[in-house]
Amino acid sequence: MAPDDHKSFFEILPNEIWQRIVGLFSRLQQNVGQGVYPHVPVLILSYAGYTSNGRSMPELRVDPALIYGLVAKLRNLEIIRWTRHAFPPLLFRDLNIRQPAPELFIDGAPCDLVGAGLEDAACIKSLSMTYGNRPSEPDINALGKVISSLPNLERLILKHHPGRRHGVSPIFDLLLGSMLPPLRILSLANFSFTSEQAVGWARCLKGQSLRGLSLDGTSQLSELICHLGGCVANLQSLEIRISDGTAASTGPQMMELLDQFLQQITKLRAFSAYDVPKEVLHHAVHHHGNHLRRLRFRRTRCSFLERPGRSELGWRPEI
After folding, report:
1. 4 pLDDT tier (thresholds 50, 70, 90)
2. Percent of the chain scoring above 90 in pLDDT
3. 28 lies in a domain?
4. Does residue 274 belong to any structural domain of this protein?
5. Domain span including residue 185
6. pLDDT tens-digit profile of 139-153?
7. Whole-model pTM above 0.85?
8. Are residues 187 and 286 in the same domain?
9. Which of 103, 189, 196, 252 is least surrounded by Cβ atoms within 10 Å, i.e. has the fewest?
10. Residues 186 and 305 in one domain
11. Edge-to-edge strand list for the sheet holding 237-242
12. Radius of gyration of the chain (CA)
C-alpha cells in the first residue's frame, strides 16, 4: 500500500460508531472543568482528529472557551503539553502573567503559532512544528521570527512532510544580527539550505549549548553540514539520515564531509546513521570510540519524502 493510501483511525470507522463518538465527545465537553482540582501540576491537551491528508475534523475540536475556562481554574500548573490545538491568545496572556508561569511544550502546525501573540514568550520550552504543504518564503520566515524571539526555548523540532511530489522546503533565514534561542535539542526534517542560510545557522549555533542534533533529508543537507563543522563541538548525540537515492548522498564527497564533521565534535556519546554508507560507522568509532555509548545503523530502503506520517528519527530525547 502506498503511503498516500493510508487512512486515519477515524476514516475507517463505520458511520454508526463515528456518530456515537461525536455524541459522547459533545457530552464530554459539557463537563469540562467540573470537579477540577486546583493543585493539578500538569495539563496535557492533545487533538488527534485529522484525516490521512491532514484535514482537520471539526467534530472533535474542543471549544477554545472551554479550554480557557479549564486552565483558568488550574492555578498551580507547572507544565502544559499542547498538541495540535490552536493556542488561544487570551489564554497565553493569562498564563504569561502568572508567577511563576507554567512551562509550555507545543506540538502543532506553524499556522497555529504565527499570529497567536506568542512572541517573546519566556514560558515556551519546546516547539515541534510540522508543515504539510510547502511553505512560502514569507510564511517560513514569519515562523523563524517567532522562534528567534523565544528566550528560553530549549527543544526545536521542524518537520516538512510534503509527500513525494513537492520536494524539500527552504529553511528560514538567519541574517546578520539574528539569534537563535539557547537550544539544547535541534531536529530538522526535509529542509534545504542555501550557502548563505547555512552560514547564518552555523553562526547562530556556534557557542550554543546544543547537545542533540537530528538531520533528516536529502543530499542538500551537505551545505549545512559543511558550515556546521566546528560550531557544535559539544554535541553528545547526533542522528543523521540522507536518503534521496543519488550519488551525492552516498559518494566519497559526502563521506569525507561526514568524516570531517565527526572529527570536529569533542565527545560524541550517541550516533545513529540511516541510509548512508556503512563506512560512516568506522569514522564515528575512529573519532569517538572511547566515548560512544550507543551506535546505530540502519537502511530504511525508503526515502524521507515517501514517509509523510513519520516523526523525527529514532532519537527522541526529553529535556
Report:
1. very low
2. 30
3. no
4. yes
5. 154-319
6. 889 999 999 999 999
7. no
8. yes
9. 252
10. yes
11. 42-46, 79-83, 103-108, 124-131, 155-160, 185-189, 212-217, 237-242, 270-274, 294-298
12. 21
The tens digit of pLDDT for each residue in 274-290 reads 888 888 888 999 999 88
Q: Which residue has the cell 502568572?
A: 98
- Residue 23 falls inside a structural domain: no
85, 165: one domain:
no
Mean pLDDT estimate for the chain: 78
Of the two residues 74 and 204, the one the predictor is more confident about is 204
| Predicted confidence (pLDDT) at residue 12 exceeds the cutoff of 60 | yes
**Alpha-carbon torsion (204, 310, 20, 58), positive or negative:** positive
Here the cell at position 160 is 516538512
